[in-house]
Structures are given as C-alpha cells and as structure tokens.
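Anyone up for a design puzzle?
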C-alpha cells in the first residue's frame, strides 16, 4: 500500500474557533469568527501552504480576514504573513519584532527575503541552531531536509505591524480573545491565544503534540512555568503548534516530558558530566518511540545543559 499523507484541513474546535491542522506534523494555524470577519492565528510555513489556508477560510467560512496574530517568530509560523500583509494588521509580541531585527537586520519594517539555509535554520530552529548541531549530523540532516523542500527556496518575512508587551484583547460581541505573554519559554515572544467563552487555547509551539519537540534556544524553566500557568485555565481544547488538537490532560503530559528532560540533564550535571558526555548518554526511555526522538534528543540535551548552566551557547 502506498503511504499517502493527508492534506492540511480546517476543523471546527469550539464556538467560532477553527484549527488548520498541518499535514504530517507541519505547523498549525487557526481562525476565530468575529461575527463579520476572521481573526487569523499564524500563517503557515511557506507561502504555498498559506495560500491553501487562506483559500480554505474563504471557501468554508466566507468572511474577510480582519487581523493576523503571530504566536512567535519561527519561520514555520510566520512565512505566510506576506499572503495576508498589506490588507490587515499583523499583531505579535514585541520580542517577535526584535527577533526578526536581530536575525535579519533592521530595515524599517519593510520585510526581508531569505534564501540561505543558515538564516532559514536560525529563523526556524532558534538563534543557536548551527552551534547546537555542530557535531550532530542526524539533527542537522533533519532540519536541512525540511528547509530544502519545494516551497522553501525563497522565504519572505513580513514583520508585525503592531506589537504589545504584556496583554492584548479583542472584545467581540460574544467572545473575548485574549493574547497573553508569560515570559521567555519556547522562544522569547510566545503568545498564548485564549478564547474565554469557547474555552479554546492556541498555544503555538509552547505545545508540540505527538512528536518529540525541538527545544533549541528555549528557556526550559520558563517554558515549564508557562505551561503550569495555562494548565490552571478552564479549557476544553488546546491547539498545539504541531499535531492534532488536544486536551489539558495531554498538555500536562507534554509538560511532564519537558520536566523529565530537565531533570535528567540536571542529574547529569550534578554527577559532573560534561556537555558532550551528557549529549551522548542522557536518554529518556519513556519517550524514545516518539517521532523525532532519535534525531533530536542529543541536541535537546545540549540545549537543556546550557540553559541549566546559565548559558545558551557552547
Ligand atoms: Zn517554534
């Protein structure tokens, strides 16, 4: 039998809430029906997928887009901004705009075209990517493969038109959509999108469901703290940055995975292991059957090691 991968699809996930679930763990996006228009959450990992997402919104919901929210700066969630730009505001945390300027240079908000693999990798996997995978052929190959597929040759990054530092809200007729920033976590600038009435959370890559995450230049303690905070919310459905919709219970299991990684690396540091030794020896048998575990465990141990030692680079 030939293995076929299902295309991305738009799913209703609560009152007025829709999730666009990427195929095979590709990035997710979302939309909120504001009554006469749509609020879009993230814009996909290349312009071709962004156009498919936009066409599905038009075909299935038939309302104009009023605003776009970026959950964070990573390429696979913002590379479709260009497909929506010019007509509507793009809203993100101020650290997202700062990350673009740091990685791509200041250019007065006009946007950037990215064609080289190292810059694409830093935009997708974090600033310390090349350093983390310097001696890790498996992790580098996985990332290089993904960013060399058709559709990624030329990535246009359109920065946010509006940023906020703490909280932002859309007060709709029968819904309040709250954007919250709870500190550095998966990256710095992660936005939690909370639909209070529908009890839906869009978490971007604060939650990766169904595969082992790439933790890159995250703040691991901050990430666990943010998840502990949102786990106290009254929520029916959580939309991860990758993978199918889930419950708070499944989000709790993901928090436990991050905690298990942190604790295993802390134990290795406590026993005097070097970073190289920890990257070679620290393993999480409970999670080893998850997709991407073999490719990413070593680099994730390095990332956690550096975080716990108070540094991000080698
Ligand atoms: Zn991300």
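Challenge accepted. My sequence:
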């Amino acid at each position: 039998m030939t293995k076929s991968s299902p295309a991305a699809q738009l799913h209703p996930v609560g009152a007025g809430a829709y999730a666009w679930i990427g195929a095979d763990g590709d990035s997710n996006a979302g939309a909120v029906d504001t009554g006469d228009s749509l609020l879009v959450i993230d814009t996909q990992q290349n312009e071709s997928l962004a156009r498919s997402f936009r066409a599905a919104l038009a075909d299935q919901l038939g309302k104009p887009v009023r605003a776009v929210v970026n959950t964070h700066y990573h390429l696979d969630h913002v590379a479709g901004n260009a497909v929506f730009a010019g007509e509507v505001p793009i809203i993100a945390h101020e650290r997202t705009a700062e990350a673009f300027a740091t990685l791509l240079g200041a250019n007065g908000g006009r946007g950037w075209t990215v064609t080289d693999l190292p810059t694409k990798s830093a935009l997708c996997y974090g600033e310390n990517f090349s350093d983390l995978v310097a001696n890790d052929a498996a992790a580098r190959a996985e990332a290089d493969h993904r960013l060399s597929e058709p559709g990624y040759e030329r990535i246009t990054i359109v920065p946010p038109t509006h940023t906020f530092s703490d909280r932002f809200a859309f007060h709709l007729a029968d819904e309040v959509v709250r954007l919250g920033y709870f500190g550095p976590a998966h990256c710095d600038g992660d936005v939690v999108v909370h639909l209070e009435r529908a009890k839906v959370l869009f978490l971007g890559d604060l939650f990766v469901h169904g595969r082992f995450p790439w933790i890159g230049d995250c703040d691991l303690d901050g990430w666990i703290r943010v998840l502990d905070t949102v786990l106290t919310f009254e929520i029916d459905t959580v939309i991860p940055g990758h993978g199918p919709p889930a419950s708070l219970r499944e989000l709790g299991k993901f928090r436990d995975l991050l905690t298990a990684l942190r604790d295993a690396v802390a134990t290795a540091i406590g026993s005097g292991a070097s970073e190289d030794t920890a990257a070679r020896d620290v393993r999480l048998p409970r999670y080893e059957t998850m997709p991407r575990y073999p490719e990413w465990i070593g680099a994730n141990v390095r990332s956690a090691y550096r975080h716990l030692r108070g540094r991000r680079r080698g």
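A detail worth pointing out: The first strand starts at residue 9 and ends at 14.
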